[in-house]
Design a protein that fits this description.
binds tryptophan; 3-stranded parallel sheet; 16 helices; Rossmann fold; Tyrosyl-Transfer RNA Synthetase; mainly alpha; 2 domains
Length: about 350
């Protein structure tokens, strides 16, 4: 019996921020010791909304950024296999074999796909509708048991579970039904108080922001708009500064006292923000140090190259099992045998 596996990852579109940390990366760090872990750099998924040559040319630097972000957050390179999705040719066949196990209308009901099309300002491309099915192929190609992802990916894991069950019952039990691991915070608000933290909305604090950047971003954060002076009672609920205190400040006593004083109007926004910036920088400082340690020419690329080789081997084995379970390999073998019996 092999160890249980974790499969997760990201599209190579940018830097890692605090939203990723509480959405998925903290879980990755927690589970890496217990599970054999594979982290995908999902460049084929990126092509669903960004397929221009200029986007594609950025994949390697973004992949590097992604891996460094994970290592900075505390992922240990000996524990985790990082791999580039487009380096695994067999993934396309697995994807194809899974496509008959889900309906178009099931996929059309997933809101995240429509959101992605809208955000990209495009009509739904064929591969964007199939996004969760390719994600199922990613998860199932290593027979993943757990998938720690943020809320916007939860529906994709649900589709994966349905597909795995369907495959197992229609053919043979090849796949574990993977389990979704939810984030510590489902969706982290941006520093502007709107929607969610996101690079494209320019409301993110990145893991490798400098201490000054962090302080500056925090000092500009949206708080309770009705609070014009420090002696006016303020709202803690729904106030992004306190949401961040709750999510990131380990000093619970300090947080509770700030909340009490804020509610009664005996602490200024500046002090609350100063303390938040300090707490954030305390978390980010060891991450900056780790990042600097791993940031050597060729190091990350080596991890990706080795990891992709290793994952490709796993994927080949899974595909082999799938061809056997479906009966496709039998068809090919029979044709091959009969072709060999031709007497010339
Ligand atoms: N969909 C993920 C994202 O939003 C990336 C991804 C692709 C993924 N395949 C995966 C995540 C498999 C977890 C498991 O970027």
């Amino acid at each position: 019996m092999t160890a249980k596996r974790m499969l997760t990852g990201d599209r190579p579109t940018g830097r890692i921020h605090l939203g990723h940390l509480v959405g998925t990366i903290n879980n990755r760090v927690r589970y890496q010791h217990e599970y054999e872990s594979f982290f995908i750099i999902a460049d084929l998924h990126m092509l669903t909304t960004r397929n221009r040559p200029t986007d594609i040319r950025e994949i390697d630097t973004n992949a590097r950024e992604l891996v460094l972000g994970n290592l900075a957050a505390g992922i240990e390179p000996e524990k985790v296999t990082f791999y580039l999705q487009s380096g695994i040719e067999e993934i396309h066949e697995i994807y194809t074999l899974l496509q008959s196990l889900v309906t178009v209308s099931r996929l059309e009901r997933i809101p995240s796909l429509k959101d992605m099309a809208r955000d990209a300002g495009i009509e739904m491309p064929f591969n964007l509708l199939g996004y969760p099915v390719l994600q199922a192929a990613d998860i199932l190609c290593v027979r993943g048991n757990i998938v720690p992802v943020g809320k916007d990916n939860a529906a994709h894991v649900e589709v994966t579970r349905e597909i795995a069950r369907r495959f197992n019952s229609l053919y043979e039990p090849v796949f574990p039904v993977p389990e979704l691991i939810k984030g510590d915070v489902e969706i982290l608000v941006g520093t502007d108080g709107t929607a969610k933290m996101s690079k494209s909305l320019d409301n993110a604090i990145f893991l490798n922001d400098s201490p000054d950047d962090v302080r500056r971003k925090v000092m500009r954060m949206y708080t309770d708009p009705n609070r014009v002076r420090a002696d006016v009672p303020g709202r803690v609920e729904g106030n992004p500064v306190f949401t961040y205190h709750d999510a990131f400040n380990p000093d619970r006593v300090e947080v509770e006292s700030l909340k009490t004083r804020y509610r009664e109007g005996s602490v200024g926004d500046v002090e609350v923000k100063e303390k938040l910036a300090t707490a954030l920088n305390r978390i980010l400082e060891p991450m900056r140090e780790r990042r600097a340690r791993y940031d050597r020419p060729g190091y990350v690329e080596c991890l990706i190259e080795d990891g992709t080789r290793r994952t490709r081997q796993e994927t080949k084995e899974t595909l082999h099992a799938m061809r056997k379970a479906t009966g496709l390999s039998g068809v090919w073998n029979r044709i091959h045998r009969k072709a060999g019996s031709l007497d010339s």
